[in-house]
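tool=predict chain=A
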Amino acid sequence: MKCDSEILNSLSTSEYEILVKGGTELPFQNAYWNEKRKGVYLDKLTKKPLFLSTDKFDSGTGWPSFTRPIEEEEISYHLDKKFNMTRTEIRANGSGGHLGHIFYDGPAGKGGLRYCVNSASLTFVPYDQLDQQGLGYLKEKFSDNGQLQQEETSVATVAGGCFWGMEELLRKLPGVLHIEVGYTGGSAKNPDYDLVKKGNSGHAEAVQLRFNPRLISYADILKYFFRIHDPTTLYRQGNDIGTQYRSAIFFHSAEQKKIALQVIEERERSGIHKTTIVTQLVPFDEFFPAEEYHQDYLQKHPGGYTCHYLRER
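tool=predict ok
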């Protein structure tokens, strides 16, 4: 915990159990599960703003549920394997206090995420009290219709074996506007195929696509990605062997990382894969387009080599 002992000693027994020990309060028997007023939810320990009422929704679970935080940097994400479950725990970055967990069953039109938070981890400030609490600057976060303006992600970068087959299958997704193959993940600048094929450049054969998030979500792209390659084989897809053929997701933002973690956890829990998923999750750095003869390869050479196919799930 990042808070001093005086703050921690001021907590009730139940608040301490939740915020410090990672416990969970009872559903439908907590302060904010049915709170419908306009306002801001703060970290109980630091009083830093975490969530807006405009991102709160009735999930039917009995806990306060939000589609996203006000600022990504105020939330940290941690793998939680307690109770024989695989989940993503969320904590307040400023205090380290336990908030709850994140799930991928939220409103589809708002990113599909559900931040399931304990009321005991929050303090609610109604909209008409923001000024007197020194939070008046947050009023601009509320638009005329009471909704936050959403920022949309439009680029995805993934790797999963020879990029010819990956490109051909991903291009078929509705909402994909542009797709190209290339190299990323290594330190070498301006790599070419002759360098990458040696397997010691650090770069992976990757596919980068631009998509319309109103037509297809980033989560759906990743779910499809996991259906067209084997994410359990380290540095191998079919007959292609080497670090350049590794399974990897190169996230462009904290939001993409969060969604990728959730999709991976869902597949692990599903039992679809008999062994552990080894897909690497790394921050995107720079993408180097491959040579022209690699672009649209299977369009140019129908029936050409590929080890990729669409699995049932």
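The mean pLDDT is 90. The helical segments are 5-9, 13-19, 163-170, 193-196, 218-227, 254-270, 297-300.
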